[in-house]
C-alpha cells in the first residue's frame, strides 16, 4: 500500500493532462464517499428534502432531457469516471453508449457493473485520452463532458473533437467548475489551496473562466443552446461528500493512508470559493444553426 506522497512524484505531477494518480486509485475509495452510482460531479438539488443519491439521479435525468435522448440514441461520454452516466443512460434510456477515460481501473469497474446490470450489449468503453483516441467521427447523437474538460490542456482541440464526433444536429453537454472571471484566475490560480488541489489530488487541471469555454465552443462552430448555473448544486454535492468522507474516514485510510484528510482538504478548498472565486456551469450546444 502506498501513501499519497509516495504516489505523487513531482515529475509526474507536472505533466499536463496526467490525472491517473487520482482517478486510477482503488475504485472502492470512491465508493466510500460518492453516491451509489459513483458519480464524481455535481448533483442537482432542486427539490427538498433530497439525498445525494437522489440529487445524482435527478442530474442524470436533467442531462438526458437537455440532450433529448431517446431509445437507441448514440452517446459518447468523455471522462466517463466509474460509468455513472453511461450505465444510467443505457439502462434508463436504452441508449447505446461509449465511455472514454485514461484510467484503466475505471474501465474494469464499468465492465463488471455493465454485466451485473445486463447492459453489456449497449455499453463500450475506450481507455485513453479523448484528444488522441481513435473514435468514429459524425456517429454520435450526443457528447457529454462532466468535470473532464478541466483535465484537457488544449480546450480548443477538445471542443473541436467533440463537434467532430457529432452527427449534424447532435448535442454537446459540458459542465465544469470555472473561475468566476479572468481576474479571479489571475489572482487565485497559483494560491496554495488551488495548487494543493491541482498537484496533490489530481496531478493536473486547468480551471478557466466560462468566457473561455464559450469562446471555444463558438470557435469550434457550435450553436449555444443554453447555460445553466449549477454553483449551489455543486456546493451541496460537496457538503454531502464531506459528510461521507468523515463517516468513512477509517475505511478510506485503510485503503490508502492519509486519503481521508487529503480529500477533506480538497473538498473544503473547493467549497470555500463558490460564487467568489469559482462558479459551476453547464453549457449545452448544438452541432447546427
Ligand atoms: C471528475 S471525473 C468525472 C467523471 C464522470 N464524468 C462523472 O461525472 O462521474 C473526470 C474524469 O475525466 C477523466 N479524464 C481526465 N483526462 C481525460 C482526457 N484527457 N480524456 C478523457 N477523459 C479524461 C478522468 O479519468 C475521470 O474519469
Automatic annotation (TrEMBL):
<feature type="region of interest" description="Disordered">
    <location>
        <begin position="1"/>
        <end position="22"/>
    </location>
</feature>
<dbReference type="InterPro" id="IPR050723">
    <property type="entry name" value="CFA/CMAS"/>
</dbReference>
<dbReference type="GO" id="GO:0008168">
    <property type="term" value="F:methyltransferase activity"/>
</dbReference>
<dbReference type="InterPro" id="IPR029063">
    <property type="entry name" value="SAM-dependent_MTases_sf"/>
</dbReference>
<keyword id="KW-0489">Methyltransferase</keyword>
<dbReference type="Pfam" id="PF02353">
    <property type="entry name" value="CMAS"/>
</dbReference>
<protein>
    <submittedName>
        <fullName>Class I SAM-dependent methyltransferase</fullName>
        <ecNumber>2.1.1.-</ecNumber>
    </submittedName>
</protein>
<keyword id="KW-0808">Transferase</keyword>
<keyword id="KW-0443">Lipid metabolism</keyword>
<dbReference type="GO" id="GO:0032259">
    <property type="term" value="P:methylation"/>
</dbReference>
<keyword id="KW-0949">S-adenosyl-L-methionine</keyword>
<comment type="similarity">
    <text>Belongs to the CFA/CMAS family.</text>
</comment>
Amino acid at each position: 500500500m502506498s501513501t499519497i506522497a509516495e504516489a505523487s512524484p513531482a515529475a509526474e505531477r507536472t505533466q499536463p493532462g496526467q490525472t491517473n494518480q487520482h482517478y486510477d486509485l482503488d475504485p472502492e475509495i470512491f465508493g466510500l464517499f460518492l453516491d451509489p452510482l459513483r458519480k464524481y460531479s455535481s448533483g442537482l438539488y432542486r427539490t427538498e428534502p433530497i439525498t445525494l443519491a437522489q440529487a445524482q439521479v435527478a442530474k442524470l435525468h436533467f442531462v438526458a432531457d437537455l440532450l433529448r435522448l431517446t431509445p437507441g440514441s448514440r452517446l459518447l461520454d468523455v471522462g466517463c469516471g466509474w460509468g455513472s452516466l453511461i450505465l444510467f443512460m443505457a439502462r434508463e434510456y436504452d441508449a447505446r453508449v461509449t465511455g472514454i477515460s485514461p484510467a484503466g481501473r475505471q474501465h474494469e469497474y464499468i465492465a463488471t457493473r455493465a454485466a451485473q446490470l445486463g447492459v453489456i450489449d449497449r455499453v463500450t468503453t475506450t481507455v485513453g485520452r479523448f484528444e488522441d483516441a481513435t473514435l468514429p467521427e459524425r456517429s454520435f447523437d450526443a457528447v457529454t463532458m462532466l468535470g473532464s474538460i478541466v483535465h484537457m490542456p488544449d480546450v480548443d482541440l477538445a471542443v473541436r473533437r467533440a463537434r467532430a464526433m457529432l452527427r449534424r444536429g447532435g448535442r454537446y453537454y459540458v459542465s465544469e467548475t470555472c473561475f468566476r472571471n479572468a481576474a479571479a484566475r489571475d489572482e487565485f490560480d497559483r494560491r496554495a489551496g488551488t495548487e494543493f488541489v491541482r498537484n496533490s489530488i489530481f496531478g493536473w487541471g486547468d480551471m478557466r473562466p466560462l468566457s473561455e469555454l464559450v469562446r471555444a465552443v463558438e470557435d469550434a462552430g457550435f450553436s449555444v443552446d443554453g447555460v445553466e448555473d449549477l454553483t449551489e448544486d455543486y456546493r451541496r454535492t460537496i457538503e454531502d461528500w464531506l459528510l461521507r468522507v468523515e463517516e468513512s474516514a477509517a475505511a478510506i485510510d485503510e485503503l490508502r493512508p492519509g486519503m481521508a484528510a487529503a480529500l477533506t482538504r480538497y473538498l473544503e478548498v473547493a467549497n470555500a470559493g463558490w460564487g467568489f472565486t469559482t462558479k459551476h456551469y453547464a453549457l449545452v450546444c448544438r452541432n447546427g444553426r
